[in-house]
Amino acid sequence: MQMRKLTAALLLLAGMSLFLNAQNEPNEASLSLEECIAKALKNNLSVQVELISPELAELSVAAAQEKFIPSFSMNYNRRDQNSASYSWLDAEGTVKTLSNNFSTEISQQLPTGGTFSLSLDGYSYDTNRNFMTINPRYESTLSFDITQPLLKDFGMKISRKDIIVAKNELEISERDLERSIQEIVYQVEQAYWNYVYAIENLDVQKQSLKLAEDLLEKNKRSVEVGTMAPIEIINAQATVAQRQADILAAETEVKNNEDILKTIINLTSDIEMPRGVTIVPKDKPEYEKKEISLDEALSIALQNRPDLESTRISLENSQIDMNYTKNQLLPGLNFSASYWSPGVSGDRVLYLNDNVLSGIVVGKVPGGFGDSFSDAFAFRYQNWSVGLTLDIPISNLLSRAQFKQARLNLEMAKLQLKNQEQEIFRDIKIAVRNVATNYERIQAYKAARELAERQLEAEEEKLKVGLSTNYLVLQYQSDLSTQRSQELKSIIDYKLSLAGLYRDLGISLDEKNISIMDIR
After folding, report:
1. Closest Cα partner for 153 from 345, 369, 318, 399?
2. Which end of the chain is more exposed for a tag (fewer CB within 10 A), N or C?
């Protein structure tokens, strides 16, 4: 029984602890736009996916560069052979032969398309055959070989094609990553300022409701003292109900925009943020005038747009591919040269009266592998050869088709670049125009809001002396609420149009001091 009570007490304490911890967790997080962007770049899954592409491209570059890494090979073979002797002149009973051979080679691909190799071969031969003058015999050969294409496959650009293309693909992936991050930054700005607008607009609706409620209370007092007809209360009540409905819609808009912002910055994966936290924006919709000419904007965009640079690099790859396929149409003409230095040594067999045919061995002069190596490395016996090999295919239909395809791809890449430049020119014109227009809209809506405030104040004064009606006052209240919302919206639109312009110019990351290296 006591154990049960103790267990129940522990469970109660644990539950109270969890409850107190939950109560102590902050339910609000105050975030600036800069902080939201930082969280998005850290947590956004799209960014994480895009970060993998440059890493894959770097591996492709490393794989392509392995072509020019020297290769080393070794080979060893031992052979022990026994066979019947068919002649007493050969050997008695069984002919025994023991041979060992080995080879080592270092080969290197040359930037000009050729190959160079250095090899060392060794061979030993030991037998019981008769009439051998050197037994066992040791041979070694030091060789230098070079092969160089002179037409097909000739040149540094041809031999390094895969490396150049892989490096270009790496550059493209980095530019694509930069463009993707610019898009994410713009999406965060868009979501952040739309959320700010929704919050500020909710405040505007609350102010409008407060004006309607104050007027309703005033009307009730006027009806009680008999200075106003009861029908005026109904009009004010209807307006209050309508503005309460507007607040409900504004509250829903706030929650919707908050959810959008949370999704973009992937707040659920942020361990520093408790679940269900409410974002409170730090930044307010303030603005300052930014001026940029169309010519200046176009110049900046042509120099900084990552996607335009990607297209230019792709065009370069198409040019490389066409040059390569054109080279493959040439006949094969290969120059080859070899230089080798042999060395021979072994035990010299001495016969009676120096007569090998006597078959009588009277002694040996020993020799070893080292002597053969000494001869080879001392270049005692020098040998060389040169040659040319011409290969003219009877039909190269496939190569011609690949060349034509590469040429068409190059033409298509050039057209795509021109089309993209035209689209950028159009986008920049629209973006510059939107910035200028939205700034003018702010000024216009600001003036309209100030006039609406003065109109409402004047109408309220007229109502006090009986020169106006509740209907007109309520109408001016509604007009003021609309003008406040429109002024606020124009400020948000101006900030977003500036963000869109910086994105279209390709400088949004520079404007916010965001480095790709810091993200990676």
Report:
1. 399
2. N
Token digits for 302? 């042509």
The C-alpha atoms of residue 270 and residue 78 are separated, in whole angstroms, by 66
CB atoms within 10 A of CB 389: 12
Structure tokens at 62: 């490393």
Between 85 and 508, the more confident residue is 508
- Give the whole-angstrom CA distance, residue 283 versus residue 270: 21
3-state secondary structure of 83: strand
Q: What is the pLDDT of residues 46-68, one digit of tens each?
A: 888 888 888 899 999 999 999 89
Residue 127 contacts residue 349 (beta carbons within 8 Å)? no
pTM: 0.77
Task: Report residue 303 as tokens.
Answer: 């120099």
| Tokens matching residue 253 | 């808009």
Phi-psi region of 331 (alpha: psi -120 to 50; beta: other; left: phi over 0): beta
The amino acid at 101? N
The rounded distance, in Å, linking the Cα atoms of 366 and 157 is: 55
The single residue listed with the structure tokens 């990351």 is: 509
429 token code pair = 């014109």
Phi, psi angle pair for 417, to nearest 5°? -65, -45
Q: Which tokens is 94 given?
A: 């069984």
